[in-house]
Amino acid sequence: MVKIRLRRLGQAHAPFYRVVVADSRTPRNGKAIEEIGIYDPTKEPTVLNIDAEAAKKWLANGAQPTETVAKLLKKAGIC
């Protein structure tokens, strides 16, 4: 199953995330099929950039977003 999820980057206590499309069996920071956005909750205001066309394409092809990514997609106005 293909999932849209977050890949954690950054230092300890300063997380930075990339929104990626990956197989559900791969590790959290493992190889991704495609990177479709970024999310930085440490900035003020929060930075959220997601490629809407790519996200819609993957959702139409059956990719399942995680709960957190689903909330982010809704916040971005994609879902």
Could you characterize the architecture of this molecule?
It is a single chain. With 79 residues, the protein is an alpha+beta fold. It has a single domain (2-75), classed as S16 Ribosomal Protein, Chain: A, CATH 3.30.1320. It has two helices and five strands. It has helices spanning 52-60, 67-75; strands spanning 2-11, 14-23, 34-40, 47-50, 64-65. Strands 4-3-2-1-5 form a five-stranded mixed sheet. A hairpin with a 6-residue loop joins strand 3 (34-40) and strand 4 (47-50). It is globular and about 35 Å long. The model has no long low-confidence stretch (mean pLDDT 95).
Short key terms for the protein model shown above:
S16 Ribosomal Protein, Chain: A; globular; 2 helices; 5-stranded mixed sheet; 42% strand; alpha+beta; 79 residues; 5 strands; single chain
Q: Which H/E pattern describes the elements?
A: EEEEHEH
Overall 3D geometry? globular
CATH topology: S16 Ribosomal Protein, Chain: A
Task: Report the structural category.
Answer: alpha+beta
User: How many beta-strand runs?
Assistant: 5
